[in-house]
Design a protein that fits this description.
With 256 residues, the protein is α/β, with parallel strands linked by helices. The protein is 44% helix and 14% strand.
Length: 256
């Protein structure tokens, strides 16, 4: 097998949460372009179905969209079951869906903190739990959790988000050890600043934008398509001996 062949994903099925927009949409597109059939979720069925149809049209792969509240255990279990029923199997799980609520700790309601933790941590845990039996049956299962540079460094007024993304990285490490005997790799991508909907407030504030750019050795924010290579790599046979890792894609921010 040639080295480039090890990146191909034909015969595999991937599930991407929050795959209708932003980095999730880019990763779903990339996995389909690499040969996988793809399921993606959104909170709203029409948005998931619209994104799925667009990806299917450009890649020729089977792509399905599903509505799923990832914090609801019954919905998560039902969604994973539908993916397996309709696409035949599940080999790759990308836990991308997440939220960010910013603010000084004194100004945030405890409900806001709990909400971020519920979506960003409990949602990932529930998805992994539901997908586990199918990933074990695959024989080469892949879990790719989307953390953040705030999994390993911090910023002020980010206590909910930084806490949740630190937990995602530790969940990744613990599950990598737990599932290693089943030949499942579990890794995390740690994005830095990307021009996503979540970061619109920063993008529209010239002073905040300039402060962020000053922290990035490459001197710019990430382009959405720059997430594609790392997700295909981690999903493929090319990364078969990598597990428990957190891989920054941040223009050098965390190398400072």
């Amino acid at each position: 097998m040639g080295v480039l062949d090890r990146f191909r994903l034909e015969g595999r099925v991937a599930l991407v949460t929050g795959g209708n927009r932003g980095l999730g949409r880019e990763m779903a597109q990339a996995l389909a372009e690499a040969g996988a059939d793809v399921a993606l979720t959104s909170q709203v069925a029409s948005r998931a179905e619209e994104a799925a149809a667009a990806i299917a049209q450009t890649t020729g792969r089977q792509v399905r969209g599903y509505a799923c509240q990832i914090t609801e255990a019954e919905q998560v279990t039902a969604t994973v079951a539908r993916v397996v029923q309709e696409l035949g199997r599940l080999d790759i799980l990308v836990n991308n869906a997440g939220i960010n609520l910013r603010g000084a700790i004194e100004t945030l309601d405890p409900t806001a903190f709990r909400r971020v933790m519920e979506v960003n941590v409990t949602g990932v845990w529930l998805m992994c739990r539901a997908a586990g039996p199918h990933l074990k049956a695959s024989g080469r299962g892949r879990v790719i959790n989307v953390g953040s540079i705030l999994s390993v460094v911090a910023l002020p007024e980010r206590t909910p988000y930084a806490s949740s993304k630190g937990a995602v990285l530790q969940l990744t490490r613990a599950l990598a050890l737990e599932w290693a005997p089943h030949r499942i790799t579990v890794n995390a991508i740690l994005p830095g600043p990307f021009a996503t909907e979540m970061n619109r407030a920063l993008l529209e504030d010239p002073e905040a934008y300039a402060r962020f750019v000053a922290q990035i050795p490459l001197g710019r924010w990430g382009h959405l398509e720059e997430i594609r290579g790392v997700v295909v790599f981690l999903a493929s046979d090319a990364a078969s001996f990598i597990t428990g890792a957190g891989i920054p894609i941040d223009g050098g921010w965390t190398a400072r």
